[in-house]
Amino acid sequence: MGRGKIEIKLIQNPTNRQVTYSKRRNGIFKKAHELSVLCDAKVSLIMFSKNNKMHEYIGPGLSTKKFIDQYRKTLGDIDLWHSHYEKMLENLKKLKDTNNKLRRQIRNRIGEGSLDMDDMSSQQLRTLEEDMVSAIAKIRHCQPPSRRHSFHPHLLCARREALSAAATLLLITVYMCSS
């Protein structure tokens, strides 16, 4: 009578997991040895445990260096890491471009730098207009009704922001009407 199949999932108990790893590691090494002897195959296994301990099996008459050299030769003697490096450089360039765009958007939204409306689409202009209207509404909402038309020192900053937003909104509206 054969054994029943077990469900393949992570073993939760660390002690049981380590025991299973050791037993199965020895089993797979045994199978690799059998394959190399029975079929005259070049077999090499490299495994790392959870604790980063390396375990390896290298078939008879073989070294890790010879095995990796043959692997590289089979692939056309290309550098194993070159394509990975190129992809990482490409990804880095895309991330830098995205980062620069986001920084520009942040600077434009907080008022640093000049807004280059020539490069903005009509949808971006509408979004900017909505942001300005929303900012003006928030500033007006924060002021008490009795002080909305007064010039107290603590409100000067808010008034400047509102006037700046209104001026920008006016420029956008003029720009959109002239297009």
- How much beta, percentage-wise? 5-15%
Low-confidence stretches: none
Tell me, rounded to a whole number, the average pLDDT: 79
Count of discrete structural domains: 2
Envelope shape:
elongated
**Which class do the helix and strand fractions yield?**
mainly alpha
Radius of gyration: 34 Å
Q: Total number of β-strand segments?
A: 2
Strand order of the largest sheet: 1-2
Run of helices and strands: HEEHHHH
The share of residues in helices is 55-70%
Largest sheet: 2 strands, antiparallel
Q: How far is the first residue's CA from the last residue's CA?
A: 84 Å
Number of helices: 5
Description:
This protein is mainly alpha-helical and 179 residues long. The chain is 63% helix and 6% strand. The protein has two domains: 14-77, SRF-like, CATH 3.40.1810.10; 103-178. The chain contains five helices and two strands. GO terms for molecular function: DNA-binding transcription factor activity; protein dimerization activity; RNA polymerase II transcription regulatory region sequence-specific DNA binding.
In short:
Residues 85-112 form a coiled coil. By secondary structure, the chain is mainly alpha-helical.
Features:
5 helices; SRF-like; elongated; MEF2-like_N; mainly alpha; TF_Kbox; 179 residues; DNA-binding transcription factor activity; two-stranded antiparallel ribbon; protein dimerization activity; transcription regulation; 2 domains
Write the layout of secondary structure elements.
Blueprint: H1 14-39, E1 44-48, E2 54-58, H2 64-74, H3 82-110, H4 122-142, H5 153-178
Antiparallel strand pairs: 1-2
